[in-house]
Amino acid sequence: MNDQKIKNILLVEDNQIVALTEKNSLEKKGYNVLIAGSGEEAISIFEKKNTFDLVLMDIDLGDGINGAEAAEIILNDREVPLIFLSGKPESEAAKLTGKLTSCGFVSKNAGMEVLYETIKTALK
Questions:
Q1: In degrees, to the nearest 5, what angle opens at C-alpha 86 toward C-alphas 98 and 2?
Q2: Which of 11, 47, 50, 110 is the most buried (most CB within 10 A)?
């Protein structure tokens, strides 16, 4: 990365294998990544450690609150670039996230290069 400061990312993903794969891939690109396994955990971490430059949020987080609900709470605390990751069709994901403004969306099937470019754009 060309940025002088290493960027901190909060990755919210309930699937541990997916989370570790994404974390490792992002760290190879020079990002610091902290994983939250649920929406509730993401909110708690974000409130305690308010140093994140970006949040990557899975929409479907299993039991508890979903990614859109967690994102709304996080964005009420502090405006931060937020990118939703989802395996759902975009139209279905848009129904859940539609009321949130200035959030990006990347399909989990899009591949890591698309995610990297979306992150770089969001951090500008």
A1: 95
A2: 11
Q: What's the rounded Cα separation, in Å, for the pair 66 and 50?
A: 21
With contact defined as beta carbons under 8 Å apart, do 59 and 67 qualify?
A: yes
**Count of other CB atoms within 10 angstroms of residue 36:** 23
pLDDT band at residue 100 using 50, 70 and 90 as cut-offs: low
Q: What is the pLDDT of residues 8-56, one digit of tens each?
A: 999 999 999 999 999 999 999 999 999 999 999 999 999 998 789 999 9
3-state secondary structure of 107: strand
Is 80 exceeded by the pLDDT of residue 102? Answer: no
Cβ atoms of residues 82 and 54 within 8 Å: yes
Per-residue confidence (pLDDT) for residue 90, from 0 to 100: 59
5: β partners: none
CB 57 within 8 A of CB 84: yes
Do 17 and 49 meet the contact criterion of CB atoms below 8 Å apart? no
